[in-house]
Write a structure and sequence with these properties.
Length: 152
């Protein structure tokens, strides 16, 4: 079943179960897909790949907001719990992120393919790893791993 069909079925089930938190997340994702689809210059098709891109971008914005609410302390506790629920829901549609060991192996492979490398080439290596494993790696983790490998 496609992500679009899963979301429709999930929204109906959430509304029947009176689970407004889940229903609201699904509505937001579907709205963001509609915004993307109707944006000027969009010429692609609405498929699972588009849904994954939209969900990943939405999850990233939720994670940024979560950091701000955590900084707010006690005032943001309720919002952090809500954001955690939304982030977890989004993650169910995205590929599992690579762990540090997997990122280290990917970075070593890129470094090996490049031959001689220097610490000044860290950006190129990070870019190559990010491109090769799009959507599966966090940029900050890749940067940290690459810098530690180049420092060795």
């Amino acid at each position: 079943m496609s992500i679009e069909a899963d979301l429709k079925a999930g929204q109906i089930a959430a509304m029947k179960a009176k689970d407004s938190a889940t229903a609201n997340v699904i509505k937001m994702i579907r709205t963001k897909v509609t915004e993307k689809r109707t944006a000027k210059g969009f010429s692609g098709e609405v498929n699972d790949e588009l849904y994954k891109q939209v969900i990943a971008a939405y999850k990233k914005s939720l994670e940024k907001a979560r950091v701000e609410f955590v900084k707010a302390g006690e005032k943001g506790v309720d919002s952090v719990a809500s954001l955690d629920h939304e982030i977890a829901f989004c993650q169910t549609f995205l590929p599992q992120p690579m762990g540090e060991d997997e990122v280290r192996a990917a970075a070593k492979a890129v470094i090996g393919a490049m031959g001689e490398v220097s610490p000044k080439m860290a950006g190129r290596i990070v870019g190559a790893v990010m491109k090769e494993h799009k959507g599966k790696v966090e940029a900050a983790l890749v940067k940290t791993v690459v810098e530690s490998l180049l420092a060795e």
